[in-house]
Design brief:
Function: Cell wall formation.
CATH topology of the largest domain: Uridine Diphospho-n-acetylenolpyruvylglucosamine Reductase, domain 3
Protein name: UDP-N-acetylenolpyruvoylglucosamine reductase
CATH class of the largest domain: Alpha Beta
Distance between the termini: 18 Å
GO molecular function: FAD binding; UDP-N-acetylmuramate dehydrogenase activity
CATH architecture of the largest domain: 2-Layer Sandwich
Largest sheet: 5 strands, antiparallel
Oligomer: single chain
EC number: 1.3.1.98
Number of domains: 3
Strand order of the largest sheet: 6-7-13-11-12
Family: Belongs to the MurB family.
Number of strands: 19
Length: 304
């Protein structure tokens, strides 16, 4: 498909620098992997997002929505159609004990703003390297906390451009799972209900969690974070380590020597390397311990 006419329609509504053809998606995900997006747009307002959706729908383009890409693997063939990056919708605000965060805001920044206002509840998120929208999409969590603990409601957009508010009780939130995974909603904003607390106590907890993350996780290499969900009664990293998979490589991808629950892009890995290694880890753990490892990472795009 020729995208120049669609590009010309889009520039009536948004800045040219926010509309890109054949955009390398490895520049937009933490793994630094993957092919190109045919058409990549980054709206700066709800109105621009609505315009992009309307134009994409008029041209019957497949739609993909991308947050900060911390928990995503883009295949080597890239993504066809329209890819919308939410990374410029980043407003954060406080009303009393409620924190409002647009989908593109970093969840780490939301936790820091809560600290500034003496609000407790988001300390667990101080080291999660993702956007608010992505964290809500998968009910992200760490160190005993998760998004569902503090979420009050979400504001979403349908693919027809309508804006809706959905209460927490209607989102079917469970461990690394939400209604969003089975819907076409685009997350616009999350509203968190927090508790007033001593900022000194909040910061002390955040410092402990930050030190734990930095000392245990392989932050020196690109990765998608923790690859696997926690299997009932087990820890994924321990199973992988005991299966003698730690340090195993395929191409440029390696099971981290620092934390076996991570797969790192250690030397110009392809997405195929990375995904093949994930499959090998799952197969090995299954044959060794008869435990199924389910991934929490989202895989998008096409094979090369």
């Amino acid at each position: 498909m020729k995208y120049e006419p669609i590009y010309n329609e889009l520039i009536k509504y948004m800045k040219t620098e926010n509309i890109r053809l054949s955009e390398p998606l490895r520049d937009h995900v933490y793994t630094k992997l993957g092919g190109k997006a045919d058409l990549f747009v980054t709206p700066e307002s709800i109105e621009e997002l609505q315009a992009a959706l309307e134009i994409g729908k008029a041209h019957d383009l497949p739609l993909t929505v991308l947050g900060s890409g911390s928990n995503v693997i883009i295949k080597d063939g890239g993504i066809r159609g329209l890819t919308i990056g939410m990374g410029k919708l980043t407003n954060l605000s406080i009303e009393g004990e409620r924190l409002h965060a647009q989908a593109g805001a970093a969840i780490i920044e939301a936790s820091r703003l809560a600290l500034d206002f003496g609000l407790s509840g988001l300390e667990f998120a101080c080291g999660i390297p993702g956007s608010v929208g992505g964290a809500l999409f998968m009910n992200a969590g760490a160190y005993g906390g998760q998004i569902s603990d503090v979420l009050e409601r979400a504001t979403v957009m349908t693919q027809s451009g309508d804006v809706l508010m959905i209460d927490k009780g209607d989102l079917e939130l469970s461990y690394r799972k939400t209604t969003f995974m089975d819907s076409d909603y685009i997350i616009l904003e999350a509203e968190f209900k927090l508790d007033t607390a001593d900022p000194v106590v909040i910061k002390a907890k955040m410092d402990v969690l930050t030190e734990a993350r930095e000392s245990k996780q392989p932050l020196e290499y690109p990765s998608c974070g923790s690859v696997f969900k926690r299997p009932p009664g087990h820890f994924a990293g321990k199973l992988i380590q005991d299966s003698k998979m730690q340090g195993v490589r395929i191409g440029g991808a390696e099971v981290s020597k620092k934390h076996a629950g991570f797969i790192v892009n250690i030397d110009n890995s392809t997405s195929k390397d990375y995904l093949d290694l994930i499959d090998l880890v799952r197969t090995t753990v299954k044959s060794t311990f008869d435990v199924d490892l389910d991934t929490e990472v989202i895989v998008l795009g096409e094979d090369e």
